[in-house]
Amino acid sequence: MAMGDLFSGMLQGEEQIAPGAVLLRGFARDIAPALLACVAEISRVAPFRHLVTPGGYTMSVAMTNCGRVGWVSDERGYRYAPHDPQTGLLWPQMPVLFSDLARRAAEAAGFNGFAPDAALINRYVPGSRLSLHQDKDEDDARAPIVSVSLGLPAVFLFGGLNRSDKTRKYRVEHGDVAVWGGPSRLAFHGIAPLADGDDPFTGNCRINLTFRAAL
User: Fold this and answer.
1) Any bridge partners for residue 169, and if so which?
2) Which residues have C-beta within 8 Å of that of residue 80, sequence separation ≥ 6?
3) How far apart are CA 215 and CA 126, in angstroms?
4) pLDDT digit string (tens) for 176-209?
5) Domains along the chain?
């Protein structure tokens, strides 16, 4: 099957959540099994781990990376690095399926020419969460963020450019893709504590793919 055929007829609705930010409902649902197979292969080379923040807090979300660089955190701070600090190896290459999905989702949201060089892969189990934060470790904030939800549903928190701005809540389900850029590129966002459940594709967890142009 041609790559273009994989993506035909997937968008089930577009929901504007802020200027430059949209939810593409069901955009990745048809190719979710192939995406999860890629995740399994990547995690065999670069295992999931719980990173420690510069302040000494162990993140409840387990993560790994693929692409030209990966996002890492330790006592020295947040940054992108070409090597996995756990194995010393280069991060696994980003699958073409990943980069093609990210590019198509960005185009659907009005951002043409998106070429991600990093894919952060987060694994949530019930109770794990991601506190409000900005994605600001990238060299150039003109490129959007593309975030793909797989497995258990979650509550996506999306605020403004200040931490004190009102935060809106959106339920994201298996195959939904969020894209934000332009005036919302540095919006605070996060994930509320994951509810318990059992998904036919991922079991008792949620997988999130976040695509960024880091360098």
Assistant:
1) 157
2) 69, 70, 71, 72, 118, 137, 138, 214, 215
3) 33
4) 999 999 999 999 999 999 999 999 999 999 999 9
5) 15-212 (2.60.120.590)
**HSE-CB of 74 using CA atoms within 13 angstroms:** 8
Helices 96-108 and 32-45, packing angle to 10 deg: 130
Residue appearing with tokens 């939904």: 176
Residue type, 98: F
DSSP line for the chain = --HHHHTTT---EEEEEETTEEEEETTTSTTHHHHHHHHHHHHHHS--B--B-TTSPBPSSEEEEEES-EEEEETTEEEEESB-TTTSSBPPPPPHHHHHHHHHHHHHTT-TT---SEEEEEEE-TT--EEEE----SS-TTS-EEEEEEES-EEEEE--SSTTS--EEEEE-TT-EEEE-GGGTT--EEEPPPPP--BTTTBS-EEEEEEE---
pTM for this prediction: 0.94
Spatial separation of the C-alpha atoms in residues 181 and 85, rounded to whole Å: 30
Residues in the chain: 215
